[in-house]
Amino acid sequence: MTDATAPLIGSGLSGLQKALPEAKALLARRLVAAGRTPTLVDFDKHGMRLAPDEKVVLQQWLDAGLVTRVAAETRAKDGTVKLLLELRDGKKVETVAMPVGACCVSTQVGCAVGCRFCASGLFGVERHLSTDEIVEQIVHARRVMRIDRIVFMGMGEPSHNLDNVMAAVARIRDEVLISAKKQTFSTVGGVKPLERMRQFAVKPCLAWSLHSANEQKRRELLPRAHKDPLPEIAAAADAYAREVGTPVQIEWTMLAGINDTDQDVDELCTLLQGVRGYVNFIVYNPVDGLPFAAPSRERIIAMVRAVKSRGILATIRDSSGPDAEAACGQLRLRDRQPAAPTS
Ligand code: SF4
Question: Are strands 149-152 and 183-187 parallel, antiparallel or unpaired?
C-alpha cells in the first residue's frame, strides 16, 4: 500500500518521494536513468510486484515528466554532443556528452567566479541548480551516448551550490549507478568548502582549478574566487585527496603570455610540494570577445616537461568539441549580456 500521507507526485527524478516504498521508487528512478520507461515487467523481474494503487502512482509520476528538457543539440566533428537544456523556469544550461564516455555537468545557471578566460562567467550567476536538475543532465546525456564518468566542470562553481551538488553525487551513484570514484568535482577551492566536502558520506574525486600559483595573478584571473592563501587551499585539497584516496587534479588553463613562463612553472611546482596531486594542463579554447590565446605547441610541451622534471606528474587535457563551443571554458548563457567588469 502507498503512504496515504505522502505528498502529491512531483515531477523530476525525485518526484516519487514517499509515494512508493523506497526500494520500488529507487528501481523506477534507476530505470529512467538508464533511459527506459519503467513497466510492470521490470518490477516483476526484480520481484517487486506493484499494487494497483502503486501502478497509478507510477503512471502519474511518468506523466509528470522530468524538470528539464533538451531544447537544442549540437554535434561536433569529434562526436561530442552539446545539449542545451531548458529548465522549468525557462532558464537554460549546457551539458556536454563526450565520446570517451564522460559527461560534463553544469551546477549553476551562470557563474559568480567570473574567471577572465571563461565564457560561463561572463554574465554572473542567476541561480543554483536543484539536485534533480543536475542529475537529469546525465539522464539526457545517456540518451545520446554511453556515459560512465561525470565531471562537474560545466557552467557554475560547484562549491557555491555544495549541498545540491554533493546530494547529486550520492544520487548519481545510487540511481545512475556511476560510482563516486568516477565523478570529479572541479572547484576554484577555498579552505572551508573543501573541509565541508570531507563531511559528506559520498565523496567525489577532486579537481582544483588553480590556473596560477601567484596570489596576485590568480586574483586578477579569478576575481571572485576564495581569497584564502594558496598554500592553505593546497593543504586542504591534499587532505581531501588523501581521505578520498585519489590524487587531486590541478587544473591549469594555459594562456599565452599570462601563465606560461618559467616563473609560473616554478611557482606551481613550489606550491605543490608535498601535495598528493598531478597537473592537468588545459590548452585554452578561444572565446569570442576575450583577449586570450593558447601558448605555442613548443611552449606547451616545454611546460609539461619542466613540471615533470620537478617530480610532479603532468598531463595535457584534450578538450572535446571546440567546433561546437562545447570545450572547457566555452559554455555560456546565450540570451544574456555580459556583466559589468569587476575589480
Ligand atoms: S572557469 Fe569555472 S569557476 Fe571560472 S567562471 Fe568558468 S565556470 Fe565559473
Answer: parallel
**In the CATH scheme, what is the code of domain 68-324?**
3.20.20.70
DSSP at 256: T
- Tell how far the Cα of 285 is from the centroid of ligand 1, in angstroms: 13
Instruction: Tell me whether residue 136 is one of the annotated catalytic residues.
Output: no
CA distance 182 to 205: 7
Cell of 181: 570514484
Annotated catalytic, 328? yes
Ligand 1 lined by 114 (C-beta under 6 Å): yes
Is residue 269 classed as helix, strand or coil in its secondary structure? Answer: helix
Distance, CA 338 to ligand 1 centroid (Å)? 14
Q: For ligand 1, say whether the CB of 121 is within 6 Å of any of its atoms.
A: yes
DSSP letters along 46-69, please? TT-PPPHHHHHHHHHHHHH--SEE
Can you give the pTM of this predicted structure?
0.90
**Of 332 and 207, the one with more pLDDT:** 207
Over the stretch 147-163, which tens digit does the pLDDT of each residue have?
999 999 999 999 999 99
- Ranges of each domain in the chain: 13-64, 68-324
Q: Which of 103, 118, 205, 328 is catalytic?
A: 328
Decide: 157 in ligand 1 pocket, CB within 6 A: yes
Would you state the pLDDT for residue 340? 39
β-strand 81-87 against 92-97: which pairing, if any?
A: antiparallel
